[in-house]
Task: structure prediction
Amino acid sequence: MNERALRQLAHVPRLAIQASSSETARDTNRTIILELIRLAGAVSRADLARLSGLQKSTVSVIVEELLATDWICEGETGFSKHGRRPLMLEVNNELGVVILDLHPGNAIVAISDFSGRFLVQENVPISSQPQRSVTQLLAAIKRVCNAEPRKAIQGVGISVPGRVDRLTGRLAFAPNLRWGPFDIGKAIAEGTGLPVEIENAANLIILAERWFGSLSGVQDAVAINVSEGIGTGILAGGHLISGWNGMAGEFGHMPVEAAGLLCGCGNRGCWETVASNQAALRHYRKLKGKVPASFTYRHLLIDAQDKKTEAMAALRYQFVQIARGLQTILAGLSPEVVLFAGDIVAVWPYFSGILAEEVPKTLNAKLPRIITTADCGMARLRGALALVLQQHFSPASSRSVPRRIAMGDSSR
Result:
């Protein structure tokens, strides 16, 4: 087992089993064993007993159940100083997940295995017409599934630039997507016959970093996703915070300029009108003058890396505006870690010092640790994968047998 896996294992909950029934205890134990296998990559039965604190006989029974239901499989032979060499246990990577990452104007459609490896992905144009966009997404899902025909697809995870109503499953607030209260989860579920999980992009970034990245063991953090707008996710006491109506964390729509630009939410001067990627592009066009319509934020990043004056100035403006909103977040939430995600991460080494310059120490306290996602634009995809895995590795679902579903199968 590698050192990275061992560090990640530190956050696996050693749940105090005060169960109301033996079935509940079995479910809890099964969840812990699955999580240990997933994080370790390859692990022996003896290591599972040692890491989980469970008796070897209990681990053996759970492992046999999981092998019988195809959630895990036996891999290579491990090392042993004495006696028979153990067969290592792995998550069954013949199982796959479809991931949708929605942005205004386009979406990424991908397939990942349960270890977090993205095997194929496609960029799909979408519009402000949800039904038409769903048709395009379903066609793309079919194409990526056909590209990986040996994968048994277990579900769909969707990252959305907005909030979802927990009661209805409809989009509750996604002003940049402009779809209104559309039930994207139901539409994709009906079109694929697969279970669908859907969540706000910033929340998924936190989930991804807790499963795969730098927030293992962190209890209080804020994720700031800088994209076409600005989304934020809040981790407090180890729990994602959604608030009573699911809208907690919409700092992108807090007012910073009373007479500012009209925002997609209908208000003026929201933080994202001055600090988002679109805001940086507007400032660049103001400085540069005539700019081709095809010039995107990624072009701006490339120009800044090439030290072009107007691009450097536009990104400096963006970072100063990010710092304005960050002050409020730090004062209100006092996180241990602030995690930034989005294309902006590509130029972080050049401009991140601006945050330290512009953000004063709040309430005479130290500034939190400010970090970025390691994989730039992949954080939302990994978060949507983690969302599906979280459901599959929950006690109720871990008892079920993985399903082998082919797109276009009329038997669904």
The longest strand covers residues 95-103.
